[in-house]
Design a protein that fits this description.
Layout (H helix, E strand, L loop, with lengths): L14 E4 L2 E2 L5 E5 L2 E6 L6 E9 L3 E11 L25 H20 L5 E2 L13 E9 L4 E5 L19 H4 L2 H9 L7 E8 L4 E7 L5 H14 L2 E5 L6 E5 L5 E3 L7 E3 L9 H15 L6 E5 L7 H5 L4 E6 L2 H13 L5 E5 L19 E4 L10 H5 L5 E6 L2 H13 L4 E8 L9 E7 L2
Parallel strand pairs: 4-6, 7-21, 11-12, 16-17, 16-19, 17-18, 19-20
Antiparallel strand pairs: 1-5, 2-3, 3-4, 5-6, 8-9, 8-10, 10-11, 12-13, 14-15, 20-22, 21-22
Helix pairs in contact: 1-9
């Protein structure tokens, strides 16, 4: 019998078991004495030794400490911090196997929550595997016991920051600088009053927003500015909420990106933008193809953000109305439309969970095509309103396959749409995050 800890809950010794399958978040699934155990680092078909990490009434959790017989899908993790850092969970799995897992997740969620299956599965969309991430929020913490400032992500399963030197999935402009950033912050008088660094990049520029809990002295600001100048990094301070973000070098920085050739979108470091530029560009083109856009179309873009889809659409259709709940993003979208001379794109602030579409004049003429790109919670509250607009095509971009499946079921079973196609887009390689897209047609 395995030794147990003093509280009698977790066995102290590693336990040997067979991994039967994988959960949607990429953990191995085993059965021990009739109870399910989710095991970090295990792959289907493997024989492993693992150590329990948590026990619950209906299931337990653990982590692999030794692989006795490995799956053909197992690879050596590229990152030296893998297994300690909580940022990635699938780096021990071959990239092709990761795609299979994510596609299976979408399929199972469609079946379980939506009770549907598309007529066709779209081939998975892929992009760069390393250095793809252009947006991140890095924790910062002075740790007296380690006598250093840590910069990076939390340890897997703990609230503590991991001791990281570099990150393989972050764009190398910052991914290779984690230890360097920590060393620089150590030279500040306020070394223990920097809480986080918001990272935002475009093709050429990198913005670092330092969240300062107290006002920084002139000498500390000079250290940050000098660091930015030396390494071609833009430096901002944030003393409170997002509205307090202020550049200190250069004086008037402006981030921008091109969702497609010939189009420029301006954004601020705190604005939501897709982290993976390559996937974003390909996703936009796929969306245009699925919508079958033409010059006669009037398109509604819900949850439009700063115009990521709306403005490429405006170059191809008669009119686009973008709707967004965040007033700042609406303003940015309007400015981006002016910047690109797209007078057929209008942007409105609205919370459609509280106010009906029919109450807005811009919805009176209806839309023949609709794009949805909601947050993780999905678009359930607005589906009944969409059905009244008479749209012949709806493309739904999702960052949560469960809510996509739920909403897809509603569109099909309640509102008369057909789920024609669906597929995954690998926005976040080496993580269990599933980005997906689906096409609905009303016959």
């Amino acid at each position: 019998m395995a030794r147990r800890n003093r509280r009698g809950k977790l066995p102290l010794d590693p336990v040997e078991t067979q991994i039967e399958s994988l959960s949607h978040d990429g953990r191995g699934v085993a059965r021990i004495e009739g109870k399910t155990v989710f095991i970090d680092g295990g792959l289907g078909g493997e024989r492993v030794r693992f150590r329990y990490s948590k026990k619950h009434s209906k299931y337990d959790e653990g982590r692999v400490v030794e692989v006795l017989s490995s799956s053909p899908d197992r690879v050596e993790a590229k990152c030296q911090h893998y297994g300690v850092c909580g940022g990635c969970s699938l780096m021990h799995m071959a990239p092709v196997a990761q795609l299979v897992l994510k596609q299976k997740t979408l399929m199972e969620q469609m079946s379980h929550f939506g009770h549907i299956e598309p007529e066709e599965w779209i081939e998975p969309m892929t992009g760069p595997l390393w250095g793809y991430r252009r947006k991140a929020r890095l924790g910062v913490k002075h740790v007296p016991k380690k006598n250093r400032v840590l910069v990076g992500f939390r340890e897997k399963g703990t609230p503590y920051l991991a001791l990281l030197d570099k990150c393989e999935v972050l764009d190398p402009r910052i991914g290779t600088r984690l230890a360097e950033l920590g060393s620089m912050i150590e030279t500040l008088a306020a070394y223990n009053r920097i809480a986080q660094i918001e990272v935002a990049m475009d093709d050429k520029n990198t913005a670092l927003v330092f969240r300062n809990l107290d006002p920084l002295s002139d000498s500390d600001q000079k250290i940050l500015i000098t660091y930015g100048q030396k390494n071609d990094l833009w430096i901002y301070l944030q003393s409170g909420g997002p509205d307090t973000i202020t550049p200190i070098w250069p004086k008037s920085p402006q981030l921008s990106y091109a969702p497609e050739v010939g189009l420029t979108l301006m954004f601020e470091p705190s604005d939501f933008t897709q982290v993976n530029a390559t996937i974003n560009q390909n996703m936009i083109q796929l969306t245009m193809e699925l919508l079958e856009v033409c010059t006669e179309d009037r398109v509604l873009d819900l949850f439009c953000g700063l115009g990521n889809f709306s403005l490429p659409l405006a170059r191809r259709v008669s009119e686009v109305v973008g709707v967004e709940g965040d007033a700042a993003l609406v303003k940015h979208a309007q400015n981006n439309a002016k910047l690109n001379d797209l007078n057929n794109a209008t942007f409105e602030q609205a919370d459609l969970t509280k106010t009906a579409l029919k109450d807005y004049s811009w919805a009176n003429d209806g839309f023949n095509k609709i794009l949805l790109d909601p947050p993780r919670s999905g678009a359930f509250e607005v589906l009944s309103q969409l059905a009244d607009l008479g749209a012949e095509r709806i493309v739904y971009v999702s960052c949560n396959p469960a809510t996509l499946a739920r909403d897809a079921g509603e569109l099909v079973h309640k509102y008369g749409y057909t789920l024609v196609s669906a597929g995954i887009m690998d926005m976040f390689p080496h993580t269990s995050h599933v980005e997906s897209i689906a096409l609905f047609i009303k016959v």
